[in-house]
Task: structure prediction
Amino acid sequence: MSALLPLAVALAWALACGPFSYALARIAPLPRPVHGPRGLRRRRALQASAGFALAEPGLRWLAALIARALCTPRLARSTAGLCAGIDRRLVESGNRLGLDVCEQLALSLLGAAAGALFGAGGHALELGGALPMLFALLGAGLPWLALFEAAKRRKHSVGRRLPTAIDLLALCMDAGLDFAGALELVACELTRPDEPLGEELQRIQQELATGRTRREALAAFAERVPSPAVRDFAASVAQSEQKGNPLAETLEVQAQMLRMRRSVSAEEAAARASVLLILPVVVLMCAILLVLFGPFIVEGVELS
Result:
């Protein structure tokens, strides 16, 4: 009788979990993005990383579960703002890995599970009881840190290269091209297509070719890259178009202003660095004085 008890418990567990497992197995994963910026990013990520290519089907299946949960009326109303913020951050990061909102949340859950398993291994070795929770929180936060860092790097890269691109646009327009032709030449010939600014210029050129106005395309550019340099560039072009000012002259002035602002920012950063270095220098001087005069102080204390 005692030998049949584990079998009965296993059978009852299988009967209880069977319908739930069957329902989970029937959920189809989210379709892989194919077109647009996210499709391009996903293809590049799958080609560049074998680990991501291995985990990507499970990521899409878990994202389908999250999408079903978020589509319930109660959660859809309460999480609409959160999902919009995550989607905006994904766009600012250049559609990192081609992820959408549900896939980003699924990646965070996978990171938490991996961290918990790693911490459970440390707990089994008696390294600490709080390790599973600590590593789970760390694994859940790492995808968000990577997302914020990607958005920050992209914004910095676009802001650093934008004055040169504006100068090239002004030169092309002085040579006789219109704004769309100058933008196409700079985007396709004078910038690398794999860098953030080249991608953004190509996207602006494509939006202009599909019928969007110049103001709408540049406003979308400012939303994707929310930096002061991009906002000023979009506002100056829109203002020049509205008032009828020569656009080439406006672009030249804008490029000079952005360079001046960048030099001022560099001077401010250098000034802050000199202030921040005061404490390490004082600590270093104290350590040097302690090494030089320490033996004499010890001898004086012993003699007294």
Observations:
- The CA atoms of residues 110 and 140 lie 8 Å apart.
- Residues 131-174 form the longest helix (44 residues).
- The mean pLDDT is 78.
